[in-house]
Amino acid sequence: MRRRAGIGGLQTAAAARDQYRLLGENVAKIKTDLMKEQLATFRSQLEDFARKHKNDIRKNPAFRSQFHEMCAKVGVDPLASNKGFWAELLGIGDFYYELGVQIVEICLETRSHNGGLINLQELCTLLRQKRKTSREAVSEDDCLRAISKLKVLGSGFEVISVGKKKLVRSVPTELNKDHNEIIELAQGQEFVTVDEVERRLSWTSGRAIDALDILLDEGFAMIDDGHKDGKRRYWFPCVSSIASTVNTDA
Amino acid sequence: MAGGHLPLAELTGSGRPVLLPSEIECSFLPNVELESEESANFSVRLKSGLLILTTHRLIWLLPNPVPPGSKGFYFPLAAISQIFSSKKSMFASLRLSFQVSVGPNGRVDTESLVRGSRSIPMTVVMRGKGDVDSCDQVLGELEASILRREQEIWESTDKSLHDAFQDLNALMSKAKEMVMLAEKIRLKLLSGSLQAGTANVEEMGSKEEMQDWLLSVGIISPVTKESAGALYHQQLSCQLADFVKFPLERSGGMINLIDIYCLFNRARGTELISPEDLLQACSLWDKLDVPSMLRKFDSRVMVIQNKSYRDEEVFARINTLVTKPDTLRMGISASDAALTLGIAPAMAKEHLLAAESLLCRDLSPDGFRFYVNLFPGIISDELYLVQHHGIYALWNTTVSST
Question: Does the structure's ipTM exceed the value 0.90?
Answer without folding.
Answer: no
